Amino acid sequence: MSRQRTWQLEQIKQGRCARCGKKRKHYAQYCDRCRARIRGHQRRKLGYQPWHKGGRGQPPRAPLKVYKRRAKSLSVEHADKAALNQGGNVTND
Question: Which of 5, 15, 21, 47 is buried most deeply by CB count within 10 Å?
């Protein structure tokens, strides 16, 4: 068993999140924040829509919280491609 898996199992045994080590409340392995991030990733990956009141299915166990993602800075190559797509001029200094 890897040292990472050993660490995860120890965290779970102590009532902590297997991913970040914070205290767990509602879920078996992850804290609310990690579970929400994993759930959001799966929704985007599979194309699912979030639960809404009046829709089908059971409401989520934990209150829905929106965690903002940090903005990623564009590298020079990506900025050049974006400028070309918008019809701008790209200069290489």
Answer: 21
